[in-house]
Amino acid sequence: MKHIVRTIALVVAMFVTLPLSTLTAKAAGSFASLPAGHAYAEYVTPTVSTIVNSGAVLAPAGISCTEASTTSTNHAANLSVGSIGGSSTANTVVTNTQTATNGTIQSSVTMQNVNLLAGLVQSPSLQATVASTANASGTSSLVKQASFSGLTIAGIAAPTNPAPNTVRNLLGLGTVTLNEQSLSNGSQSTAGSVNMIHIRISVANNLLGLPLGTQIIIGHVDSSENIEPAPMTVQAESYGLYAGAGNQVVVSPLAPASTGCVGGSGQTNLATKTLTFGSTGVITDTASGTLTSSGSTAAGQSTISGLNLLGGLIKADKVVANAQSALSSGVSSGSTSVTIINATIAGNVQSQHPAPNTTITIPGLGYVTLNEPTHILNSTNAIEGVYAMDIHVTTPLNVFGLAAGTRITVAAASTTISMY
Question: What percent of the chain stands above pLDDT 90?
Fold first, then answer.
């Protein structure tokens, strides 16, 4: 994948609880465009139990699906992702400005004393800013700033303003991309993103002990604008598995697929993922949506083949979660479904089509709810969401070492269509 999905800053918040929140009320007389912008300091994937804060987005700020002029900010000190390193301070700011004639969203990040991979990559400061604009003439995005101060790679000075997508080799580890940019400009939609530092670990059994495929992103900003064909938003999301304990991310959403506020399509595939509490099998997640003046539709699906969790307490040959919504002329419709093939829980065979909110006790651990849906259907909203499995750990000191309060959601899909 050329770039990490630019909306990763909000992906955890989007997926942990279904359904998604609806659009902020439209400001009177504002230009008909839908902005989105995000900024964050650090993100490391995949989640590794031995690396603190891996899988978590640090110092995130974001604005999405609103026509109100507003600002989102965040500040963090002493950021660290375990042995990978971190920074002393980070500031993120996303500002949306909506007038009667145009909409502009700008995302910025500033960081100090970045030190990564035991000093292999260092920069006393870095800054990045990207902005997107929409008006009657069309849409456009621009990288306004992407600069370092005192950047060194393996002890060698690097340019203050490196050319977009500059790649350097990291001997025995992989590569680092500096000022990684992506820009897309069209008449009705535009998007731009910058990763100031993007490290990819491509050498197995490296001296730092980082897993093959590890990606480290430092200093991310993105922005986008979409001119609306109708006064509504269309969103769809899906993911294979997520685990959290309170505010702590245990496993970030696996193979997330999503659309923007005005629909689109996305698909993410992931080979078998081994976790401390089992393995997922192959994951395929899809999301799609269509927004038109006559009506809109959205669909999300998550499929897992070969699920095996908690030492075989939960097994299934296949798990499928579906959600779909439609809204036209004030009439909404939608549905969810869950299919689990050859599934056993604590040794007991389960129905291929479990009834909604089927709850099963897991001795010595907690319980799992199968086919857990959410439905909101009215004249202005068509919202559907479902978890195929929602595992709750209630027993402390269990044999799996999972903290009481841990929640594991398996095969999630949601769709949201909202008028305003």
Answer: 75
**Residue 257 in tokens:** 């697929």
Predicted model pTM: 0.74
Q: How many CA atoms does the CB half-sphere of 415 hold within 13 Å?
A: 34
Interatomic CA distance for residues 339 and 272, integer angstroms: 20
Residue carrying the six token digits 């009215």 = 378
Of 329, 320, 418, 412, the residue nearest 374 (C-alpha): 412
The partner residues of 381 in beta bridges, in order of sequence, read 418
Per-residue pLDDT tens over the stretch 44-101: 887 666 676 766 788 999 998 788 899 999 999 999 888 899 999 999 999 999 999 9
* Secondary structure of 214-277 in HEC code, one letter for each residue: CEEEEEEEEEEEEECCCCEEEEEEEEEEEEEECCEEEECCCCCEECECEEEEEEEEECCCEECC
Cα(196)–Cα(228) distance, integer angstroms: 31
Compute how many other C-beta atoms are within 10 angstroms of the C-beta atom of residue 171.
9
CB of 290 closer than 8 Å to CB of 245: no
Q: How far apart are CA 388 and CA 408, in angstroms?
A: 11
Burial 262-289 (b: 16+ CB within 10 A, else e): bbbebebebeebebebbebbbbbbbbbb
